[in-house]
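Honest question from a wet-lab person: if I give you the sequences of every part of a complex, can you actually get the arrangement of the whole thing, not just the pieces? Trying it with mine:
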Amino acid sequence: MSSSSQRLSVNNLKDLFDSVEAFLFDCDGVIWKGDQLIDGASQTLHMLRSKGKKLVFVTNNSWKSRSQFAEKFKSLGISVSPDEIFSSSFAAAMYLKLNNFPTQKKVYVIGGDGILDELQLAGFTAFGGPGDADKTIDWKQSGIFEHDKSVGAVVVGIDPKINYYKLQYGTLCIRENPGCLFIATNRDAVGHMTPSQEWPGAGCMVAAVCGSTQKEPVVVGKPSTFMMDFLLEKT
Amino acid sequence: MSSSSQRLSVNNLKDLFDSVEAFLFDCDGVIWKGDQLIDGASQTLHMLRSKGKKLVFVTNNSWKSRSQFAEKFKSLGISVSPDEIFSSSFAAAMYLKLNNFPTQKKVYVIGGDGILDELQLAGFTAFGGPGDADKTIDWKQSGIFEHDKSVGAVVVGIDPKINYYKLQYGTLCIRENPGCLFIATNRDAVGHMTPSQEWPGAGCMVAAVCGSTQKEPVVVGKPSTFMMDFLLEKT
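Yes, you can. This is the full assembly:
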C-alpha cells in the first residue's frame, strides 16, 4: 500500500465512491461465467449507471469483437454499448493503428472472427482465422507452401480451430516477410470455452508460434499495460 | 580445443580413424535431405562398414519409428538395421523404460505413429497421435471433456495433425493426473516435412503444451544429452 493510499472503511467509502468517475470491470468470472450471469452483477451495474458513473468492460478474451460482446451482454439482460467494451481483439487493432501500420499491408490471423472484425473495422485487411479452419496440406501434391508477402503483421489469439496450415502460414509470414509484426492478444494459459471446464487459452497458440519462429510477440492484452494505457489516454 | 585434442592432419588421420570404433551420424541433412540421398553418403557408409566400424544413426526426427527409418534407408538403397538407428521416438520409450514407468499406466501421444510404435515395442500402452487426428469438439453437445485418469505420461513430438482435441487431452492429463510426466521428443523449431521447405517442428507442438500447462517438459532428443548418454551406456 503506497503512502497516499488508505484502507477502505465506512468513513471513507462515500468519499472514494464520489471521487471515482469510471469503473473498469473484467468480464469472465466477474460479470459472467460461461453463459451464466454472476449474482449481483446486473444490480451493481444498474446502481453505478444511476449514479452517473462511466463503465468500461475490459476482457482478455479475444474470441469475440466488441459488438459480439455487446450481444452477449444483451442475451444476459444487460444493456452495454460496444464503445464501453475493451477486448483484446480490439486492442490488437488499436495497437496497429497507434503504430501507423500501413493499410496496404495485410494482417494474418490465428484466432476467431472477433479479431478479424475489429481489424476490418479499424480499416485493415485481415484474413485467416475461421476461413482457414478446414485447410489441410496435401503432402503428396505439396510443392512450395506459398504465403502472401504483403502480410505485415500476424495476430494470434485463442483458436480452437488451430491447425498445421495456420501455424505454417503465420510462421512463414513472421520469419520471411521483412519487419512482419507478431502480436499476441494475450498469453492466458486457459480459456473458458465452456463454463464447467478450462480449455487451452491463447497462451497455447501464441506459444506454438513462438516455438516455430523462435520469436517473442508483442502482447496487447493483460498483464501488458497496453490496454490500460490506451484507456487512460482515451478517457 | 582442449589440451588433449589435436588438429586433424594427414599425419594423424589414420591413427584417429583406427582408434575410433563407432561413427554416429545425424540423418536429416547428413544422409538425406527430404527423400534425396546426399552425395557420397552411401559410399562413405559402405567404406566404414568395410573397415569393420560400428555405425549409429541418430535423429531428432520423432515422426518415424526405427523400423520406419530402416525402410527409408532401404528405399534410398542403403541397408541399415533398426538396431543401428536411434530416433527421438525410441528415446522417449527408453526414457520411460529407464525410469521404470509402470506398464499399467498409459501414455498419451501428440505426434506420429513412430512414437506409438516405439512405446508399444517397449511394452507400454499408448494412444492418441494419428488416432486423434480427426477428432473435433462439439461445443453445443459438450459437457465435460473427459480424459483417461490412468495416463501417466504425455509424449509430444512433431505433429502436422495437431488440433484442439489433442491439446486439451494432453493438457488435462499433465495438469490433472498426479505425477503425470511431460516428455518432449525434441524442441526443434523446424521440421522437414518436404525437402524444399521448412515446416513447424516438434518445438511448435511442445511449446503449445507448455503454453497451456505452464509446465516445462523433459526433452529426450538433442540438445539434451539423454540420447548420447544412453548410447554410451549401451555400446
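Two things worth pointing out. The two ends of chain A are 25 Å apart (CA to CA). The CA atoms of residues 121 and 233 of chain A lie 20 Å apart.
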